[in-house]
Amino acid sequence: MRTSGPSPLQTITLLLVAGGLLLLALGGYLNPVANAVLEPLLGAQGWLYTRFQTMQDFFSASSDLAALRLENAELRAENAQLQTDLIAAQQQANEIELLSALLDFARARPQDQYQAAAVISRDPSPFLQYVIINRGSDDGIRRGMPVVAQGGLVGRVSQVTASAARVELITDAAAQVSVSLQPSEVDGLLTGSLTGDLSIGLIPQDSALQSGDLVLTSGIGGQYPANILIGQVNTVRQEATELFQSASVQPVVDFTRLEVVLIIINFQPVDLSPLLEDGNTSP
Amino acid sequence: MTALFGGLLLLLASILQVTLMGRFTLLAGTADLLLLVMLTFMLQEDVRADWRWGIAAGLMVDLSSALPIWVSLAAYIGAAALAHLLETRVWKISLLTLFALTLGSTLLIQGVTMFYLWLNASPINFGEAFNLVTLPSMLLNLLLVLPVSAVVSELSKLALPSEELI
Hey, are the CB atoms on B28 and A125 less than 8 Å from each other? Predict the structure, then answer.
């Protein structure tokens, strides 16, 4: 049986149709037709791809989750370490600031020799204003030595052991310090109180006292060196019926935040007890 | 075991008192954590409340306080005696009893301290001392006694379980 191929007419027709379609496509006339055909196809493709991806994620999630948990734990540990480092750095910065202030004070009074000490505890009784420091007789600390901090007077050593000492703060109700007011050049007696407030008494009525006057140790009585800053006069109370004026004092030292103090170790208080009949020393 | 655990508890309270509690003041009053721990520990079922706990607490206060030893000993032995009295006279310790004991003990300790300051001719106005120190301290102690009691009770159950089991 003889088979014949396409006739030349068919071939030419096909070539003409193909060439026409090519020309139509190149001219952009077939775009709507292509879009109409491709759009549902792409939609179906997208739907299938999304579902496949979801299934793939579901099956591979167990290994990824474990890796993520591990990474999360590592990041948390790193974060905790960084926070610890930050706190340590902040503490160091605070200490440096505190020590700089103490150094400034020591430089301002080169005649004094100092021993630095950390405050390690406070008196448990609310009636007493004492602190305990971590330096004792082994470090050259003796009873009666003055204690300063942050540019101002803190108190004096009242008891000493080999490795620690108890400091009576000037805010204690029983503490008394002879003071001199500047620039009015008036002497008075500074006393503490139960609440930790400071006040000056025994100021003569005719003295011109003003708010803002500086309060310094006068050195009278030999218990403290002269010219250590204590604070500023806050308010003055003058009653015509009283013998003396009094004033409240704002201390330069923040007694609620005492951390590091300096003990003046080359000052020995004068023992006045043999000169006094009742044995009491004057401040 | 009870003595060892009680001693450690009092020591911990004493350290917290001198380092931490003194910073939290109400007017001029502070809470007495050592007293609260001593009282609440003495009132635990398995603990015999006697004056030895008062001696232990008094000695611990003496280590860090400028008060003479007889003041702290007298104050805390007195507080321990109050707790002992209450434990022997009252069938079950209620909240009201605990509050009453806290009030009485605080008043006793502060009273003994004020008596010493008076003997020592300290320039203190006692009315002011009562208003600014004693009353705020009592209030702080009352506020703290319940949480302290809960903590001490739980710690005691953890540390001293054998006596219940036996």
Answer: no
pLDDT tens by residue, A84-111: 888 888 888 887 877 777 777 777 777 7
The Cα–Cα gap between B163 and A169 comes to 48
Range name among A41-50, A274-283, B58-67, B116-125 with the lowest pLDDT average = A274-283
Alpha carbon B143 to chain centroid, angstroms: 14
pLDDT digits (tens, 9 = 90+) for A217-240: 998 888 899 889 999 999 988 888
Is B29 close to A126, i.e. CB distance below 8 A? yes
Domain range B2-160, its CATH number among 1.10.1760, 1.25.10, 3.50.40, 1.10.260 = 1.10.1760
Tally the residues of chain A.
283
Residue of B nearest to A161 (CA): B63
Q: Tell me, what amino acid is at A270? A: V
**Global pTM exceeds 0.80:** no
B19:A121 CB<8 A: yes
Candidate from A124, A158, A191 with C-beta closest to B22: A124
